[in-house]
Amino acid sequence: MTGSDASPSDSPAVFPAVSPTDPPSGSAAFRLAYVPGVTPSKWVRVWNERLPDVPLALLAVTPAEAFGALREGAADAGLVRLPVDRDDLSAIPLYTETTVVVVPKDHLLAAAEEVSAEDLADELVLHPLDDTLGWERPPGRPANERPETTADAIELVAAGVGVLAVPQSLARLHHRKDLTYRTLTEVPQSRVALSWPAADEAPDLVEEFIGIVRGRTVNSTRGRRAEAQKGQKQPKDQKDRKSAKPARSGKPGAGARTAGKPAARKSGGGAGSGRGRTGGKPRKRS
Asked: Whole-model pTM?
């Protein structure tokens, strides 16, 4: 799914932060952290349909807080941006986002359908401290100071101070009527992943969520629900009913004539018919 915005949702969704120390009442919640731009709404809906007895608590975190939340046990898993330190965290990549450049609507670059890194050579390109693209060297001219956050950089772009390269989901998240964005080519792209604390085996609820984000069906999910189904033995009478083959329907065979019309009787005299072989009138006695 590289080369396009493969996010599971086309429009950004804002979820309230849920304190991991105060989960919903009823039962222990599965705590899922997520970074800005990631929209877990589709997966949350599937979770609620598949595991209605286990609440899913969402925890909004910044990219800088995401890995700490996993290491400290504040979240069971997280939707984060790669790279991930594999020494103590596990991760599976989910999708790759398109990179775009955010510009004012009256900017010269707004007239193009897509922009290359070379097109930014003379532009002041903002590079916020929470950048998610991992540039070795950002294109364009660097600003004297780096904005603290992407939101701060968006405000500067709106004020006519430079342009900003970000994943498309962040451009949508920080949408403004006076700004637009265009696809930016020949630049790094951000990859979103599901991450959780490293272990020999993923916990049951994490395995359930892995199955959901990978599109597994209920029957193929390798989590606790599937294991429970494996342990259920099929009743013997139910097996017998499945193994018994129904009688084949069709026309009755020769041995079934008694169920239909009686066989036609042969004409002519037989051994016990009471008539002679020649038939006709009886002979006169002399």
From this structure: 0.69
